[in-house]
Amino acid sequence: MDITVVAAAREDVSPLGEPLRVAQQADRLGYPEVWLGEGPTWDAFVLAAAVGAGTRRVALTAGPVAVSVRDPHGIARGAASVAAVTGRPVGVALGTSSKRVVEGVHGRPRERPAATLEASAAALRDLLHGAPGEPVVPGSAFPRRHRPPGGPLTVAAFGDRAISVAARYADRMLLDVVSPEQVRALRARLLAAAGEAGRTPPTLAAWVPAAVDPDPASLTQVMRSVVGYLTVPGYREMFEEAGFGAAVALARTGADADTLLRALPEEAAATVGLIGDLDTVRARMDAYAQAGLDEIALVPATAGDPGGERTLSALAP
């Protein structure tokens, strides 16, 4: 199983430059790839270019980027531009994001997100491999000048429609904050969808929160990333089955994140994360591998561990 690093994941209150520090640690420790997620704070391609300038060798993946906000040519151009200025392979990850981000931040309608994801993935399957001299998009009078960015096309998926898109177009499918049991079930759905599409299945990766020997600040940071999933279908049932039904019920009442954080036992973090001493974490990684995960993308807690140095050093390849 491959181990990569997520330098920028979901929005939190960590220092603005923390993704750069995480990426530098990952590069120094020999991790093969760094993910640069996009949200209200960071532009994924600008961050990827900055990481490329501040590291020596690590490959870069920008995203997931929201397909309702960025058009396929803009995504392909961004990846090729970063590859040109860094000399690194650059992949892109696609996702549908949320109404809160697409409409609340960008002011764009989040309509038919699964169809938009499919259209973007289908277009990028070709655009990411176009050669210099070809039209930048089919039918355009503008010639492509960049070389292909050279990285994989990843589709973030959880529901059946998104899994179908990943199976048909992606090199890799991405899950976020999942248990080994969910990995097993989602991999089965991916294999079935790839079989229907007549394709070799894409590899399966997951962003997984990680904190080796966590201090209280790191554990709180991980817990904050978990509480947002308590009302999401597929996740709420998992937390209920794991014994956290009271917190799920509270989340359904519309309780805020701080209230949920106080109500959710710390053990919940280990349901969907790599939390504990090194032996515990390595055993949990083995469980993910046995469930069918091809790649763990570590999302290191940094609140009590600047740059994720303790966790990334302990789990370095």
From TrEMBL:
InterPro entries documented for this protein: F420-G6PD/mer, F420_Rv3093c, Luciferase-like_dom, Luciferase-like_sf
Keywords: Oxidoreductase
Record carries keyword Cell inner membrane: no
GO molecular-function terms, A-Z: oxidoreductase activity
Catalytic activity, EC: 1.-.-.-
Domain Luciferase-like residues, every copy: 14-294
PANTHER family per UniProt: 5,10-METHYLENETETRAHYDROMETHANOPTERIN REDUCTASE (PTHR43244:SF1), PTHR43244
NCBIfam families from the UniProt entry: F420_Rv3093c
Name of the molecule in the record: LLM class F420-dependent oxidoreductase
